């Protein structure tokens, strides 16, 4: 697979004299839903092209999906769970991939349960069936959540499920709870007919999990050769998010070309939930988008190490490089 992706990279990232823009295809973690709107909006408004970049946004298949795409160079930039990135780098030392811009300052990792099936809090998961897609970013952090809340994993029946059937199984009562992103699984379940007041949204961040969420990642070989382009990409991305915060409905309207079947009202609500809960946090309001708190990051590494045996425990600099963030005030979202 890596060989094929490498060939793809050679074809897509080779500049030609006839093309003034640098090709920077962007690999999402998931489908064209509300939280993807800022990137599509930035394309439509010409924010990337203004930076001399030709950006095509492509959907993904889970939080783990973008990492090998970027590590092989098939995509110069992508969007992924930074905790999964830490594990990947530990298992693939020297892989040319790092995070360069934090987007979900507060991660959306959640357990979404049904009150009518007896799930309202963490301890209620014991004795129940939990649906969890193996590539899911929230499932990857579940062991930390379980440890922080004293859950007995032997008392929880974990059912590996595919993403397409995760919320349907919850709606049908085949599982009592699922792991997922709060703004994805909650609204998907409601769309399938589960009453909103029957859903319990247990945010892991509210129950002892101090990790960061999804970030923009870059192929470091590409970044070394194109530092200005990487900074331009991050600046344009911040502009897309700022516009999406100001006018969520207009941002979601930009998704129509990518996902004509999308319910505009539902995806607007999903985007608004991600903005309020994950992107525009109190820390971001003060410090701007994209950076991280070194003390919190160190704590996150220690917490991840309680359930994952690092071959070599990383330092923040091994995973996150803030040097490409623009220093012109463009990261202020308000």
Secondary-structure map:
Elements: H1 2-12, E1 22-23, E2 26-27, H2 37-44, E3 53-54, E4 57-58, H3 66-71, E5 77-81, H4 82-91, E6 97-102, E7 109-114, E8 129-132, H5 137-148, E9 157-160, H6 163-171, E10 177-181, H7 182-191, E11 199-203, E12 214-219, H8 220-225, H9 227-246, H10 248-253, H11 264-279, H12 282-287, H13 294-304, H14 316-319
Parallel strand pairs: 1-3, 2-4, 2-5, 8-9, 8-10
Antiparallel strand pairs: 5-12, 6-12, 7-10, 7-11
Helix pairs in contact: 2-9, 6-7, 7-11
Task: Describe the fold and architecture.
The protein has 334 residues and is an alpha/beta fold. Helices cover 40% and strands 15% of the residues.
Strand content: 5-15%
Number of domains: 2
What is the CATH architecture assignment of the largest domain? 3-Layer(aba) Sandwich
Strand arrangement within the widest β-sheet reads: 4-2-5-12-6
Q: Outline the biggest β-sheet.
A: 5 strands, mixed
Q: And the CATH topology of the largest domain?
A: D-Maltodextrin-Binding Protein, domain 2
Give the termini separation. Answer: 42 Å
- Secondary-structure element pattern, one letter each: HEEHEEHEHEEEHEHEHEEHHHHHHH
Mean of pLDDT? 92
Quaternary organisation: single chain
Q: From the alpha carbons, calculate the radius of gyration and give it in angstroms.
A: 19 Å
Instruction: Say which CATH homologous superfamily of the largest domain is assigned.
Output: Periplasmic binding protein-like II
Poorly predicted runs of 5 or more residues:
1-5, 7-18
> Helical proportion?
40-55%
């Amino acid at each position: 697979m890596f060989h094929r992706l490498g060939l793809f990279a050679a074809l897509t990232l080779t500049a030609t004299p006839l093309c003034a823009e640098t090709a920077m295809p962007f690999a999402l973690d998931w489908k064209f839903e509300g939280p993807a709107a800022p990137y599509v909006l930035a394309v439509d408004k010409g924010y990337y092209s203004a930076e001399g970049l030709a950006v095509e946004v492509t959907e993904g298949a889970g939080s783990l999906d973008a990492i090998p795409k970027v590590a092989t160079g098939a995509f110069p930039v992508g969007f992924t769970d930074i905790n999964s990135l830490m594990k990947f780098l530990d298992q693939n030392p020297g892989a040319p991939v790092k995070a360069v811009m934090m987007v979900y300052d507060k991660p959306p990792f959640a357990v979404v349960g049904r009150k009518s099936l007896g799930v309202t809090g963490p301890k209620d998961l014991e004795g129940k069936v939990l649906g969890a897609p193996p590539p899911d970013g929230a499932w990857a952090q579940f062991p930390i959540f379980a440890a922080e809340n004293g859950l007995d994993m032997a008392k929880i029946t974990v059912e590996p499920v595919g993403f397409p059937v995760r919320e349907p199984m919850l709606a049908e009562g085949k599982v009592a709870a699922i792991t997922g992103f709060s703004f994805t699984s909650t609204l998907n379940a409601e769309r399938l007919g589960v009453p909103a007041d029957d859903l319990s949204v247990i945010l892991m961040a509210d129950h002892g999990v101090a990790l960061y969420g999804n970030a923009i990642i870059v192929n470091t070989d590409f970044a070394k050769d194109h530092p200005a382009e990487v900074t331009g990409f991050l600046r344009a991305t911040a502009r897309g998010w700022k516009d999406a915060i100001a006018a969520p409905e207009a941002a979601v309207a930009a998704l129509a070309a990518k996902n004509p079947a999308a319910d505009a009202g539902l995806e607007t609500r999903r985007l608004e939930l991600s903005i309020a809960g994950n992107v525009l946090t109190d820390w971001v309001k003060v410090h701007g988008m994209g950076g991280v708190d070194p003390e919190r990051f160190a704590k996150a590494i220690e917490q991840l190490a309680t359930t994952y045996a690092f071959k070599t425990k990383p330092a923040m600099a091994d995973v996150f490089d803030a040097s490409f963030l623009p220093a012109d005030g463009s990261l202020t979202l308000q």
